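Practice set, problem 2.
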Amino acid sequence: MATKGTAAAAYPSAARISDSPCYLQYSASLKCLEEFGSDKSKCQDHFDVYKECKKKEREARLERNKTRSLFS
């Protein structure tokens, strides 16, 4: 059984959005929504940047996981 410290080292935490490399893009999207309220079309650029960041983050995670084995 792995300890919490070991698990954190082996698997970077994405449990908290503030730990995400996309936190700045996420925050900018929310700030835009606060500024423009229900007019989401004005925030589309922020949404697109955040979506692209999350895509790259996911691809990097999948690439890291390719080298890991469940049995080693």
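Problem 2, part (b): a different protein.
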Amino acid sequence: SADLVQALEEYLPVILGMAKDGSELEDKIQFAWMNQEDDAEETALPSAWYEVLSVLHMMAMLRLSQANSLLLPKTSLEGYHTKVSEENKRASVEVFLKAAGHLECAMHQVLPRMSPEKR
């Protein structure tokens, strides 16, 4: 997941450049996403802001997964679960805060820029 987070962090500025006010590309490029929830194979939408929203959502979900994995107790060689270390607890809180930052940005910076139809 670390490689995916890094790829998304590198992709986000590119998409933000397409979405910024006055950009001719904002609604010109068709972004497509694979569906896993229904029968349609993919959803496509010409909206750079929706792509920014999708990237922020994916980054937040990956961070939440990372934070959760830090809180899982490790199993020792003897088969019993050890406590989660204080270091892992602190690291988990930092990762949760990063996820919250991604979601807050999506709510306050991205969603207001999208039309109600695209939300």
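Answer key, part (b): The chain has a mean pLDDT of 89. The beta strands are 31-34, 42-45.
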